[in-house]
């Protein structure tokens, strides 16, 4: 049986794996984004062993030497240095090593970010085994909890005869708090004392691939890129306020903007202004938009409206044509959540006293909704776990639901204060067990009812958003990373340690002093985290944290202050905080564009410069 032809996908995958294994994570992610969003999904990927490219090249060199050592008749001939594949000049590894590789343990340089990880904290999927005191510790409202921007200890990878020699360098404590930060030639922050150029240590590469698991690593630049020149501003709302912006799945040319009184679909073009299709427009008839959601294939957009004590849902195609009108419900529809795959939609209809959880199967198109699940409280958020399970939250409770032909309650978890309801819910699988993470905006608390874990005072202000880090490749044993943003001017990344029942803050990021963060979200591949305030936005490498990779700032200010428009109504979406305007922030499916809804405008920010 002949071996399959070598294609560019085979070569690109081997190069991508080599870049990951040798610590060149930034280059690997750049290749991944330009070539294949998920290289691990290629059919041959599971069969490629570690260091395959190095092994293949070495075997090729052996064949090359064998070929050069034989004449046309097959007789052995001496191999001259001039015939060496890489030329006659020898390459001495020892002379090429940087000064840091000859430094003794007590003179070892600080880590690339100048910070030392706390003992026992699992950071970026690896446990820190070296005991060291955390630097730059900030005390929160709980005096016994410290925060630190944890970083993974770099690992040296030295390829010899196709086998990687992996060793972790020694670590010393970073310089005392308060010393000025400096940047080395790679843009890394060095918190240690300044060294002469001749003594500057060379940072060891970071080994970022273990058993086929890809983790993007990027060297954070010393100066963040300004995304303003690559941003298009769309005026969408007149005197109203943009509360939702969402991309059509798998299509970076179609985006939806919605507020309380409008919903419009925009088709983007590189050569002409965006084409607008108005789906809902309040013309004084008291029709309010309460929820918007695309189906996972991007074929239908569900738009919920509220009028005269009744809620209704209309679905539209990508051209803006109304396709279906779903049955009405006698309450406001506060949330619409499609399953990640399939045709099922969870509808949340609420009033001030009770809520209904309703399942709609778009493939069946029934004349009426199936019997709803009644909840004696206001449901504020809902999250699909998989095609058969979902979680909802609101008031003092989190609700676990089973989904088949309808949705029905299987378990209720109760805790908290009814005056400080559970506002957000996210769910994921940890091995074979479900994990539900709830957050209370007003009390800044986290709760994992599925594992009976409670964590209070996570922030010093209201929580404005939470999200679990995506795992597009569905790799097992991934660490659970939660991002939470707050009006205390920070977005924090937490490692959730289920075994030890605790939350560890691995990054604390901020836009600038006195800039409450009103929205945040991971890129679809989990590589980056974006956060936005009233008129500013920053993007960080989610693994490294530290200095932003890119920033954006609106020019629509008067006397240095952003002009705000008060919304005519408050629809209670995700428990919006009074006197703090909503901000919507979403990535397109490819992670190459951001849609940022602020006041009456929507910014389309292009990240591919």
Automatic annotation (TrEMBL):
Coiled coil: none
Chain positions covered by the region annotation Disordered: 126-152, 166-204
Pfam families: LisH (PF08513), WD40 (PF00400)
SMART domains xrefs: WD40 (SM00320)
Gene3D superfamilies: 1.20.960.30, YVTN repeat-like/Quinoprotein amine dehydrogenase (2.130.10.10)
Protein's UniProt keywords contain Nucleus: yes
Assigned keywords, A-Z: Nucleus, Repeat, WD repeat
SUPFAM superfamilies associated with the record: WD40 repeat-like
Main location: nucleus
Origin: domain of life: Eukaryota
Subcellular location: Nucleus
UniProt entry tagged with the keyword DNA repair: no
Protein name per Swiss-Prot or TrEMBL: WD40-repeat-containing domain protein
